[in-house]
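User: hey, got a sec? need Secondary thiamine-phosphate synthase enzyme folded
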Amino acid sequence: MKTYLKEIKFPSTKHTYIKDITEEINKTIKKLKVDSGFVFVNSKHTTLGIIINEVAEPNLLEDVLYHTLHHVPEDRRSTRVAGNKNYKHPTTNYTHRCQDNPHCDEMDEDYNAASHIRALLFSHPSVVVPIKDGELELGKYQQVAIFEFDGRDGKGKNPIRQRTVQVWIHPTDGIEIV
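Assistant: Yep! Here you go:
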């Protein structure tokens, strides 16, 4: 069987947010006429994760975002904190700088250690979801979503993040329930 790849590409201009991508994945499954199989959802970024959770309820999303930002302090040198007297979450001093990585080829001068730590603690780089009867086999309140920890608005020297999420769709020959 052939495996299919759909890439969801988008500019990420808001720092921290959760966005439901369940419908977009299900539309692709239906378009391909896949009845059963597996979907692998993969983030191509270290500060953009994938989650499966209840994301349709806005108050829960606000609680999750508050918890995430409150429990991992932001770097005081970050553009989100520096010069922002209204920043309402804890801050600290980290040592990370993108320029210290020999693989970094960006002009990134933000200090985003907190974004990396949040991605490690509160999301996954990829998730696997079964396909049954032509759609994602999720629980009643579950959705597949991206969890952005380091979106950029393009102000200053920080580039707008161009993000890519891969959706690998692998059909199977059917499901035999035992």
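Quick note: The domain at 4-171 is CATH 2.60.120.460 (Jelly Rolls). Let me know if you need anything else on Secondary thiamine-phosphate synthase enzyme.
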